[in-house]
Amino acid sequence: MSLPDDRKYSETHEWHKVEGDLVVIGLTQHAVDQLTDVTYVEIQEPGTEVEAGGSIGEVESVKTTSDVYSAVTGEIAEINPALADDPGLLNRDPYGQGWLAKIKTGDPTGLDSLHDASTYTDQFAS
Questions:
Q1: 15 in Cβ contact with 26 (< 8 Å)
Q2: Tens-digit pLDDT profile for residues 12-53
Q3: Are strands 14-19 and 22-27 parallel, antiparallel or unpaired?
Q4: Which terminus of the chain, N or C, has fewer Cβ atoms within 10 Å?
């Protein structure tokens, strides 16, 4: 499995990508594979304050429901509107069009504890 190397990866299988003052969050292919077919995505509304390590929503699949966590403190700036009508987009394109939320943060230090692509692959997705 080849992971994009322009983002950081958590032990709870979210990816975080810095885009200016926003941090985009999505699920890794490993997480999506474990969930199987995603049937519903619920992310807190824009404007909601989030804490590093806190849940920003849930992803439901035919197997289970799983929380989604943010590694940074900030405010949800945007959620992916495409997932409301097509939650399977997360299965098909987890590193692209299947992103979940964008967090506006003034303090990205929570990303320091995350793994790069190589370390994540070695420890969690091999």
A1: yes
A2: 999 999 999 999 999 999 999 999 999 999 999 999 999 999
A3: antiparallel
A4: C
